[in-house]
Structures are given as C-alpha cells and as structure tokens.
Amino acid sequence: MKLDIQDIISAVGGKCIQEGLIKQPIEVITTDSRSQVTNGLFVPLKGDRFDGHEFIKSVYEKGVIATLTMEDKVIDPRLWTIKVEDTRQALLDLGHYYRNQFTVPVVGITGSVGKTSTKEMVAAVLSGKWHVHKTDGNFNNEIGLPLTLFKMDASHEAAVIEMGMNHFDEIHRLSLAAAPEVAVITNVGTSHIENLGSREGILKAKLEILDGLMPGGLLVLNGDNDLLSTVGELPFNKVTYGLNTSNDYYAEAIANEGEYTTAIVTTPQYKCNIRIKALGEHMVYNTLAAIAVAQYLGLSKAEIQKGLESYAPAKMRMHLETYDNQITVIDDTYNASPDSMEAALKVLRDYDTKGRKIAVLGDMFEMGEFAPELHKKVGAFAAEIGIDRVYAVGTLAEYIFKGAKEQEGAPTFYYPTKEAFIEVMQRELQAEDTVLFKASRGMHFEEMLEAVRKVK
Question: Which UniProt keyword terms apply here (predicted)?
Fold first, then answer.
C-alpha cells in the first residue's frame, strides 16, 4: 500500500487541519494505537466505552505519520491531521477507495449461517486458478471489512469478502465499501432476529448486499431457502443452488465417506462428481455456491476440481479429530443458530462410528424474545433425530433440555454451567464415542475439549 495524503483527504471528504513533519505516502492504515507501523495512518474509532482520540498523542512513536480526527483541535502537530465527520464511515470510505485501486474480481458473501465456511470454500475453489485474498477470522464488520481490503496487494488476483451484521443498514455500508462483482447469500434463518424483528426483516437486511453489487454483477442465492426462493427479478444476473433439481446448480446422491462428503453435482455447463474434505449436507450447499461463483468468473472444470481438493475446514467449524483416548470430537464451537444446530446434529447422526453419538449443545445468543421457543425447537430436533444422548449446557440451554424432554427420544440431561458438566463428562464418556460440541461463540465451548482429551 502506498496512498498519497491528498488522495486520502479526498477519499474521506476530509479537511487537513495540520500538515505533518513527514511527507511520505501512507503504507499502513490502522485502528490500533499499539501497533508498530511504517508511515501509518491512524483511524481513531469511538464507541460507547472507548475513544481512540485519547491515543492520538502516542501513535507518532509507533510509526504513524497521519491521523483522522472528529475533533477540531490538533493533538499532535507532528502528525498530518485530517478532520472528518465520522471516523468509522471514513474507514469504510477509505476501504472503498483502496478496493477500487484493483481490477480483480471481488466476491461478497453474507447469510444467517454458513458465511465463513462458504467464504472458505469459495476462496479454495478460486485458488485453483488465482492467488486469492480472503477475510481472516471474524473481520467481517464495519471495522474488519475495510481492514481486510487494506491487505490486498498486487499479487492478489481475486478477493472473497465476508459480510456480517446484526442491524439494518450494516450490509448496505459493507457492500458499498467492497463493491463486489459477485454476491452470495447463503440463507435466511433466525440469527440476530432479536434486532431485526422477523425473518422477513433478516431477508431485507441480507438483500442490502445488492446496494454495492457492481452493475451487471451476479447474485448467487440458496434456492432451497424458503425466503430466498421468493426473490424475484432483479437488475442483476441471478442463479440459484441447492438440492432441489429446479435450481441452476444442484446436488444429488450425497454420501459420507469418513471425513469426506461426496455428491453428484449438476451445473448449467456439465455434471460432475465431487469429493470434499468436510462433513455434512450443508457443506454441499457451500460447494454448490462456490462452483456457481467459479463458473461465472470463468474457471475451467479442472481448475474448480483443483480448488475443491485444496479445501480444509476452518478451526472450530466442523473440525473432526479423534483423540488418543479414542474419543472422536466434532468441534463446531465457533458459533450457533437454530439452523446451524440442526445441520450439525445431522452430521453427528450420519457419522459412521462404533460407539455412541452424543451432542453437547449450549446457548444460542441474540435470539431475544424468541430464545425460549428456538432453543426448545433445537432440543426437540436433537431428541428425535436418532442420536444416543443429548447434554444441554448453559442458562438458555435449559430450554433445549425442555424441548428434548417433550419428545420420546434420546436421553437428555441439563447442566447450568460448563464446570458442572465437565465433572460429569469425565466420568460418562468412553472410547469410541463421537461427541459434537456446539454453542454460540460467547459460551467458549472450546474450553471443554481439553477436558475430553483427559478422559481415561
């Protein structure tokens, strides 16, 4: 990155209120006052409990030569100081400006669940031809997305950008910044329903990705989703994917082979067999989305196949591992919603194991007033799907327990805390058990995995 100060001022609609000592192009844009950089621009963000402006005085020693500010005063005369109305919006504006320095295809991905695994799959498939830049970790919000864009460089030939949200207008702003050529919506479920009021509200929020989609771009939709299937004619190209044969891209004959999933895929161009290193029917959906994106961007069948072979599940997302004590863990602890809970439970049900199939399920956050009903629904599904035992752990998980107990199915047990369950787990688990761990990120269920390793 090398950005001229005057170009930055123009991009953010700012005003220079102080010329700095060092007249060099900006090489790094940071929101972290602790980072050591070279010729950096500091963007001080302001939140309910923090104000980055308080740290402007310390960033020069960290290699920063310019700063944005929402204040009228100059805090450090050594820094180029650029006044803007809103530093958070300026960060997005800068991200958009920097993105437009590249002509490579950008793919934007959103959805209630499956954003990250679809992002990983799309990036893997495109890597069959190109050097691909992608969102790292959970850098999918109004801060993380522009920081992701700033990491693009001349070596990158495509970018896959994840977009998350929990309120209206967030995807709108993210899409405008990223300006994708292809937009993917994985599904519309119940994640963040607390803030968006209804699934119809979630659909409206997800469709904001169209606001930044480039003219003539492609919208890729999960055609099996009840709400996405209602999306009508648009001033963009549109394709659908799913298991229903009415979709443009669909899969049949899905089967499990150990840690692999196989299927027969039909596309508008050809039919092919796929074999992906991932567990579950939902991963076939992600693969279909990736193939649709890749075909639109001109990848050959061989390039797509090469990319599929390179895919590996991200950490804490359907990660399968058998420990030395012969207990197999399905680690899906990164996050949870009702839809992803059901998908994970199906994986557990279908996994070929000699021992018991056990689900350890925890709280799902941001469900609001819908939380009791949605947790009970997950519990009922878990009890009747055909696994051997269900453990519900956490405050809201009591409703998972209640939902399961209303069904005649798997024995179900409730523990209000992880600590209480770990004590029981270390006595109850045995060799050849397969155990699914899943809950919202804030439950930190990954902490229980080390306890599983210690089971004798």
Answer: ATP-binding, Cell cycle, Cell division, Cell shape, Cell wall biogenesis/degradation, Cytoplasm, Ligase, Nucleotide-binding, Peptidoglycan synthesis
- Report the SS3 class of residue 76: coil
List pLDDT tens digits, range 330-373: 999 988 889 899 999 999 998 889 999 999 999 999 888 889 99
**Cβ proximity of 212 and 176 under 8 Å:** yes
Q: Is the pTM of the predicted complex or chain greater than 0.85? A: yes
Report, in this order, helix, strand and coil percent for the chain, each rounded to 5. Answer: 35, 20, 40
For residue 95, what are the contacts with CB-CB under 8 A and spacing of at least 6? 145, 146, 147, 149, 150, 177, 178
Distance CA 396, CA 39 (A): 48
What is the token pair recorded at 106? 């950008």
CATH number for the domain spanning 275: value is: 3.40.1190.10
Question: In this structure, are 446 and 416 located in the same domain?
Answer: yes
Angle at 275 between CA 274 and CA 281, to 5 degrees: 90
Tokens 């999918």 correspond to what residue?
Answer: 140
* SS3 of residue 148 by DSSP: helix
Could you tell me which residues are annotated as the binding site for ATP? 111-117
Residues making up the binding site? 111-117
Contact 220, 255 (CB under 8 A): no
Does one domain contain both 19 and 73? yes
Based on the domain organization, do 72 and 28 belong to the same domain?
Answer: yes
Q: Is 73 exposed, middle or buried (0-12, 13-18, 19+ CB in 10 A)?
A: exposed
In a shared domain, residues 148 and 208: yes
